[in-house]
Automatic annotation (TrEMBL):
It comes from the Bacteria. Pfam families: Flagellin_C, Flagellin_N. It comes from Congregibacter litoralis KT71. The keyword Secreted applies. Its main location: other. GO terms for biological process: bacterial-type flagellum-dependent cell motility. Belongs to the bacterial flagellin family. Residues 6-141 form the Flagellin N-terminal domain. Keywords: Bacterial flagellum, Cell projection, Cilium, Flagellum, Secreted. GO terms for cellular component: bacterial-type flagellum hook; extracellular region. This is Flagellar hook-associated protein 3.
Length: 402
């Protein structure tokens, strides 16, 4: 009985040895097949944890790269749209300069107004541009709602002031669009400090030729009123602020500057008694209102001297507002360009970081093929030796038993 038990133990030991050698060989073959040194966490617990951390970091970087590509695409669409908007504004400016000419008649100005109105429709269409995800570019957070609509001569905005951001790195995010309010609505008017407008009831021919403000400009709403008691008297002016306090007076001379509180106006033509020009301090005006004001002035122009002065004042103000609008669009477009450059730079950084992570991951988990092949050969020899030993031991045991 003792001999048989010892024999059984010998057989079991031999089989266990063979199975162990086969397991070692299979693990090495699996390493060579997958190229991975760690097949299960038990192979290297600390290495397995490090692999999980590295793989998570790689997934995050890949997500940042996808975000960057998405942001790049959306900003490219916005940049193209803003270029088209600028082209529309430049064309309207050309038309305004053309219309603000003494050779133009009410009829030719009315024909120019037709194209200006068409350009307003084109501008509204551009303001309602959608991106590749069928979302409105300039609606803020209300990306599924059409932001701009035109009824008659009024354009309304249904979006908000929101601005979407995307993370393109762990500590870096970029705005992927701009609200319609920033691009089209909250635009400085006039010369940036004030805008002017002639009283529609004026009967004279006074036209504002220049307007400017220096650093000492006192922000307020002002009114320049002209007086001439009798035709023999000189034309005088009086400037009052919003509280009706007089801030400047003098005799009016065509072409001479009227200066007060840091503001400067050069007025040409001959005003009538009671004519006035108002100054709106630090105004904001939508681009659509600017274009509509130009169209309205062209449509309603009259052939009288006072009518010509009225349209000249309206178009001069419109040109100032157009320049502000063009400057605002160019500023947003420049900002978009900066963001695109930033994305490109961050993408390069992400690629380098990803390469470092991949290299570190490879060092931790990838198998050394030369070492693994050498180990495989040794394991094959060891398995063959174990199998041969088992066969030999089994034969001797059977012989002794007999």
């Amino acid at each position: 009985m003792v001999d048989r038990l010892s024999t059984l133990q010998i057989f079991q030991s031999g089989i266990s040895t063979i199975l162990d050698k086969q397991a070692d060989l299979a693990r090495t073959q699996q390493e060579l097949a997958t190229g991975k040194r760690i097949q299960s966490p038990s192979d290297d617990p600390s290495g397995a944890v490090k692999i999980l951390d590295l793989e998570e970091d790689i997934r995050l970087v890949d997500q940042y790269q996808r975000n960057a590509s998405l942001a790049e695409g959306q900003l490219a669409v916005e940049e193209t749209t803003l270029s088209a908007v600028n082209n529309v504004l430049q064309r309207v400016r050309e038309l305004t300069v053309q219309a603000n000419n003494a050779t133009q008649s009410p009829e030719t100005r009315a024909s120019i107004a037709v194209e200006v109105n068409a350009r307003i429709e084109e501008l509204v269409a551009l303001a309602n541009t959608r991106d590749g995800n069928d979302e409105y570019l300039f609606a803020g957070f209300q990306a599924q709602t059409q932001p701009f609509s035109r009824q008659g001569g009024t354009v309304t905005y249904s979006g908000d002031d929101g601005q979407r951001f995307l993370d393109i790195a762990a500590s870096a995010q970029v705005a992927v669009r701009d609200s319609g309010s920033r691009v089209f609505l909250a635009v400085d008017a006039g010369n940036g400090s004030f805008d002017f407008a002639a009283d529609p009831a004026n009967t004279g021919t006074a036209v504002v030729a220049e307007s400017s403000a220096d650093g000492s400009f006192v922000r307020d709403d002002y009114t320049v009123t002209f007086s001439q008691a009798t035709p023999a008297d000189p034309v005088t002016y009086s400037v009052t602020d919003s509280s009706a306090a007089v801030v400047a007076t003098g005799n009016y001379t065509p072409g001479d500057a009227i200066s007060f509180n840091g503001a400067r106006l050069v007025i040409e033509g001959t005003p009538e008694d009671g004519d006035s020009i108002t100054l709106d301090s630090a105004p904001k005006q939508s681009i659509f209102d600017t274009l509509q004001g130009i169209a309205d002035a062209l449509e309603n122009s009259a052939g009288t001297p006072s009518g010509s002065a009225a349209v000249n004042n309206a178009l001069a103000s419109g040109l100032n507002n157009l320049d502000q609008a063009i400057g605002n669009v160019l500023e947003v477009q420049s900002d978009v360009g900066v963001r695109l450059n930033r994305i490109e730079s961050q993408q390069s950084i992400n690629e380098d970081f990803n390469l470092q992570l991949q290299t570190t991951l490879s060092d931790v988990q990838d198998v050394d093929f030369a070492e693994a092949i050498s180990k495989l050969n040794l394991q094959l020899v060891a398995l063959q030796a174990a199998q041969q030993t088992y066969v030999t031991t089994q034969g001797l045991t059977l012989f002794n038993y007999l």
